[in-house]
Specification:
Elements lengths: L5 H4 L4 H7 L2 H17 L7 H25 L1 H4 L17 H23 L1 H25 L3 H9 L2 H10 L4 H24 L1 H6 L5 H5 L1 H24 L5 H23 L5 H29 L3
C-alpha cells in the first residue's frame, strides 16, 4: 500500500486530528484519573479541579498519542489494525502532526501549572515522555519486555488525578498505579498474540514474536494471578470494603478463566476475547473502588 498524495494530505479534517489523539484510549485514562480524584477525598472534588485537571491530563495524553502516530507511521501501514490511521494514509503530514502534538502538550502543561499544581504537571510530563519517547521510540523496538517496562507511563492517570486533589503522592495512589501496572501485560499480550503475524512483519519484538505463543500465554496466566493478588491490596489496607472485594474477586477469577482458556486453547478466538474482557475489567474494578468509597463515606456499610 502506498502513501497517499500531497493533495490527499491537504484534505485532512478535524476527525483525522482527533484520531491522532487516540480518543478511546484517552477516555479510559481520564475515567481512571477522575476516579483517582474522587478517591482522594471524602467530599466532592472542586469542579475546577475535576474539569481543568482532567482536561490538562487529557491534552497531554493526546499529545503523547499523536507522537506515537508520528513515530509509528511507517509500520502502521503494514498492520491491519493501524493501516487506516491518518498518518499511515498520508492524510496528516509529519510536520503538522508534530506541531499538533506540541500544541496539545504545551496547552495541557499550561493548564496543570496554572490551575492545578506543579507536582501533577511534572508527573504528567514524565508520563508523556515515558510513553511518547521511552516506550514508543525506544523500548517498543528494543525488547520483548517493552510493555512491562513502558507500562508505568500508562498506569499513571489515577496517580495524576490523586495529586491534582491532594498535591502529594500517597500510598493509596501508588496502589492504584500498581493495579494498572499489573493489568497491562496480560491486556496487551493478549492483543499481541492476536496480531502476532503483523508484529513479526514489521520487526517489532513483541513477546509472542520472540518467544512464541505458548510462552506468552503462560506469562499472561501468571500475570492474571499477580493481578488478582494486587487487586486485593485495597481491601487489605482498608482503603476499600466488601463491595470492592467482591467485585475484584469476581473480575479477577474471570480474567484467570480467560487466561486459562488461552493456555488450554479451549475457546475459539480466546486471545482477542481476553483482550476485550481486560478493557471491561479495568473499567469495572475502578468503578467498584469508587462505589465502595462513597458507600463507606455515607456509612451505609
Amino acid at each position: 500500500m502506498t502513501v497517499m498524495s500531497n493533495t490527499a494530505q491537504a484534505s485532512a479534517g478535524w476527525r483525522d486530528y482527533l484520531e491522532l489523539t487516540k480518543p478511546k484510549v484517552v477516555a479510559l485514562m481520564i475515567i481512571t484519573s477522575a476516579i483517582g480524584m474522587l478517591l482522594a477525598t471524602e467530599g466532592m472534588v472542586p469542579w475546577s479541579v475535576l474539569l481543568l485537571g482532567n482536561l490538562g491530563i487529557a491534552l497531554c495524553a493526546g499529545s503523547a498519542a499523536a507522537v506515537n502516530h508520528l513515530v509509528d507511521r511507517r509500520i502502521d501501514i503494514h498492520m491491519a489494525r493501524t493501516q487506516r490511521r491518518p498518518m499511515a494514509q498520508g492524510r496528516v503530514n509529519p510536520l503538522n502532526a508534530m506541531l499538533f502534538a506540541l500544541v496539545l502538550g504545551v496547552a495541557g502543561m499550561g493548564i496543570l501549572l496554572q490551575w492545578i499544581n506543579a507536582l501533577t504537571a511534572w508527573l504528567t510530563l514524565a508520563s508523556l515522555l515515558g510513553y511518547a519517547v521511552i516506550y514508543t521510540s525506544f523500548l517498543k523496538r528494543a525488547t520483548p519486555q517493552n510493555i512491562v517496562i513502558g507500562g508505568l507511563a500508562g498506569a499513571a492517570p489515577p496517580l495524576l488525578g490523586w495529586t491534582a486533589v491532594t498535591g502529594q503522592i500517597d500510598a493509596e495512589a501508588l496502589l492504584l498505579v500498581l493495579i494498572i501496572f499489573a493489568w497491562t501485560p496480560p491486556h496487551f499480550w493478549a492483543l499481541a498474540i492476536h496480531r502476532k503475524e503483523e508484529y513479526a512483519k514489521v520487526d517489532i519484538p513483541m513477546l509472542p514474536v520472540t518467544h512464541g505463543e505458548r510462552y506468552t500465554k503462560l506469562h499472561i496466566l501468571l500475570y492474571t494471578f499477580i493481578l488478582l493478588a494486587v487487586s486485593m491490596l485495597p481491601y487489605v489496607i482498608h482503603m476499600s470494603g466488601i463491595i470492592y472485594l467482591t467485585v475484584a474477586l469476581v473480575l479477577g477469577v474471570r480474567f484467570i478463566d480467560w487466561a486459562w482458556a488461552m493456555w488450554r486453547d479451549s475457546r475459539p478466538h480466546a486471545a482477542i476475547k481476553t483482550f476485550k474482557f481486560s478493557l471491561w475489567y479495568l473499567l469495572w474494578i475502578f468503578v467498584a473502588l469508587l462505589v465502595d468509597h462513597y458507600v463507606g463515606v455515607a456509612g451505609w456499610l
